[in-house]
Amino acid sequence: MTNKSRILLGMLTPSSNTALEPITSAMVSSLPGVSAHFSRFRVTEISLGAGALGQFDLENILNAARLLADANVDVIAWNGTSAGWLGFESDEALCKQITEATGIPATTSVLALNDILKRTGVSELGLVTPYLDDVQQRIIANYARNGVRCTAERHLDLKVNFDFSEVNADTLRRLVHEVAESRPQAITTFCTNLHAAPLVAALEAETGIPVYDTISTVLWSSLRLAGVDTRELTGWGRLFTEVE
Predict the structure, then answer these.
(1) 7-109+215-235 architecture in CATH?
(2) How distant, in Å, are the alpha carbons of 34, 45, 53, 176 from that of 144?
(3) Averaged pLDDT, 31-38
(4) Where does this protein have coiled-coil stretches (predicted)?
(5) In terms of pTM, does the model score above 0.70?
C-alpha cells in the first residue's frame, strides 16, 4: 500500500450495468483503506447501430468523470469495453480528455487488458462475450490489427446491456471451457456486465490458462496507478498476483 490513508478509485459505469459495482466493491473490500466510487452515464444497448454507438459520445462520459472528480478520487477508470468495437484509439483519447478535464490519471478496461497482454507476451487469445456477431467480429479484427490472434471465440448474440448481467455462471463456465479447447495463451471475458470475475480463479485452475476478466483488468490498472500493490488482492485470479 502507499502511505496515503485512503485510496479512492473512481469507476465510470454504464447506466444499465448491475454487475461491476458489487463485484468491484467485493474485490477491494480486502484492501484496507481502498474503496470504489461510481458515476453512471446512459448505456442500454450494445450494437453497431447509430444510436448505440452514440451512447459513447465523449461529452457524456466526461460529464460523469467530472462528478467523480468532485469526490477527489485518485484514479478515474472507464469500466467498460466499448473500445473493443470502436477502436482502441477511442479509449486513448478518452483517457487524455479525462485527465485534461480533471487533472486525475485515467485508465480503461480495454487499455488495461492490452497492457496485460503485452506484458505477458500474449499473441493468441480466447474471447468470450455476450455480444452480437458483428460486434464480436469488430473486436476480433481490432485485436488482429494489434498483433493478437483470436484462436477461439464464443458470444451469446445479445444486445440489451441489462441482459448481460442475467447470464448465469454455468453458461459462463461452459463458454470459457469451450474456448480453452483451442489452448490460447490467455482467455478474456470481455464485458463488464458479466458475473465472470468471481469465477476466474476456479476457471484458471480447471483450464491451466490465465483468464482476464475486464472488470478485473481495470481494477488491476487502477490500483497500480494509485500505488497499491496488486499482490495484496488474492483469490481473484493470477492477474493480481503474477502480472507486474
Answers:
(1) 3-Layer(aba) Sandwich (3.40)
(2) 36, 25, 22, 20
(3) 97
(4) none
(5) yes
